Amino acid sequence: MRRAFDPPRRAAQYLRMSTDHQRYSIEAQTAAIAAYALASGYEIHRTYADPGISGLRFETRPALQQLLTDVLSGDRAFEAVLVYDVSRWGRFQDPDESAHYEFLCRQAGVQVVYCAEPFVNDGSFAAILVKHIKRGMAAEYSRELSAKVIRAKHGLAAKGYWVGGSPGYGMRRRIVMPDGAPGQLLQDGDRKALQGHRVILTPGPAAEVETVRRIFRLYVVGGYSMVGLVALLNAEGTPALHGGLWTKSRVKSVLRSEKYCGVYTYGMTHQDLQGRRRGTRRLRLAGAWRPVISRAMFDAAQTSCRQRKPWMEDAALLDELRTAWADQGALSAKIIAAHPATHAPSVYKARFGGLLGAYQLIGYAPTPHQVRSAEAARRDRPFTRRPPRPTRSNAELTAGLQALLDRTGRITVDAIDEDPALPSAAMLSQRFGGMAGVYAAVGYTPTRRQALLARPRPSAGPRQG
């Protein structure tokens, strides 16, 4: 028990909050910890703060990392760490992870004290039990909040409201008032001021809209390749997103995005506390906003893209590298990416286990720097040679769909995606010209909702397999 004339014990305080909108503000935590320290005989000598950082992951919290580093190294001037409550220490999805970091402090002779909790962290059975329950509650709060946010976003997206991030090139975000009246345009970095406001997409500046239309026109009608479009746009000085240079990936993102024909696609991927994975509640809403190009032009671009991507044999890919070598006198990832006769460097890396493997097959001697870089990358993530993709005919795919129909009695997007014997519903839709073609291939009569969502693509008929 501490006596009144004992000197104050030296302590550090750890502060954390996720957003500015929550009640656990840094100022509120500081005031509560200061009052506790005064009443309990602590004197705060150092502050560790993670403002605006989630408590889910240790690797994203530099202040907590520094705190543990100082504690374990012995380079500290305190004997206790004061924390507002268990949730401020962390909302780790595994409660044992939270206990592990506290154990490291205790093992080094530093006690973790929770100032606003109703229990004393003295190692008693009651304290251990209540503390573990609190850790589980902190983790469960994050899981419940994540599920609520996902449901709310999906509901807003189903009404045509934009709940994503950047709108991309040629599009802008516009505020919609609670009464449906259009509000101001939002620029990059802007946020809506009131929670009752909603956001929709709208075509952006006239120059960007015309560039989008020109990209589609030159690709479909003019026969330009993506690399050719990159060279043309950069040579003309046409700025890309945020004023940068055009790249193949930026051109591809324009050509492959349905938003330019007024279609809102949401939930293609799913991000939750377990990470990012393929979405299970995908939404596709036609006519969500004013289109920049026609549906026919977009479908023609997708057909052209598929027709320009035949599977190439190894020898043909190596011939491309020999051509680039002869033209430039050297080879590198940058040269390969810029040369009009070659694929992207990632194609050769995936096919030959890295660029060095491709260089060796054509007799090219890489520079020492290239060798060191490749060896460092191989240590971080070993390459494996990707086998050729098997090509499945329409008849094989139809047989697989028929087996699914016989087994489940229905054909749905989710059922197709969950069947390990079938490719994705998106791939089948591309092969058969839309979900309507998929249904017709096996004689399945779709429901009214499926029929409404299965919009046929007249200009992208079924591919012959």
TrEMBL record:
Residues 10-160 form the Resolvase/invertase-type recombinase catalytic domain. Residues 181-311 form the Recombinase domain. CDD domains: Ser_Recombinase (cd00338). GO terms for molecular function: DNA binding; DNA strand exchange activity. Residues 370-394 are annotated as: Disordered. InterPro entries: DNA_bind_recomb_sf, DNA_bind_recombinase_dom, Resolv_N, Resolvase-like_N_sf, SSR_resolvase. This is Recombinase family protein. It comes from Phenylobacterium deserti. The lineage of its organism: Bacteria, Pseudomonadati, Pseudomonadota, Alphaproteobacteria, Caulobacterales.
